[in-house]
């Protein structure tokens, strides 16, 4: 069983000699934990966005309805609109917390790169990625394809 796969990665006209090494059990567990945290955060973020959208729709409907009312009914519905505005603001602040704290996909990809890629040109590749503005997520997709070819070899 092979756990290290030497390969050459070509990015534009540049070539990089690298070795992909499968992470050990501890590294895999750590990486998986980070990914699960990211997924949970993304799911919560999407759920909050959906809730905000629904609250905004309710608010707009009530704003239209309040135009047709008068007296106590109008006052009560106006208070409901204000309550919806408060709830929307609260959920938007929770979204901001996710923006401030969440581990993004790029950070997870960078961590995987650091764990699994070694070789004489690793630092040159990192410099190239930074200089050219290449995402680690895209880079790892290319690495996975190259390693897949190496895995098929006997």
Q: What does it look like?
A:
Keywords: Coiled coil. Residues 38-94 form a coiled coil. This protein has 154 residues and is mainly alpha-helical. The chain has one domain. The chain is built from five helices and three strands; from the N terminus they run ββαααβαα. The chain has helices at residues 25-66, 71-101, 105-116, 122-132, 136-152, and strands spanning 4-11, 14-21, 117-118. The chain has a three-stranded antiparallel beta sheet. A hairpin with a 2-residue loop joins strand 1 and strand 2 (14-21). Helix 1 (25-66) runs antiparallel to helix 3. The longest helix is centred in the N-terminal third of the chain and has 42 residues, at 25-66. The N and C termini lie close together (10 Å). 8% of the residues are buried.
Keywords:
5 helices; 73% helix; mainly alpha; 3 strands; 154 residues
pLDDT averaged residue by residue: 89
Quaternary state reads: single chain
Number of H- or I-type helical stretches: 5
Looking across the biggest beta sheet, what order are the strands in?
A: 1-2-3
Shape: elongated
- Total number of beta strands: 3
Helix-strand makeup class? mainly alpha
Radius of gyration: 25 Å
H/E element sequence:
EEHHHEHH
Largest sheet: 3 strands, antiparallel
Helix content: over 70%
Number of domains: 1
| Low-pLDDT stretches | none
How much beta, percentage-wise?
A: 5-15%
Distance between the termini: 10 Å
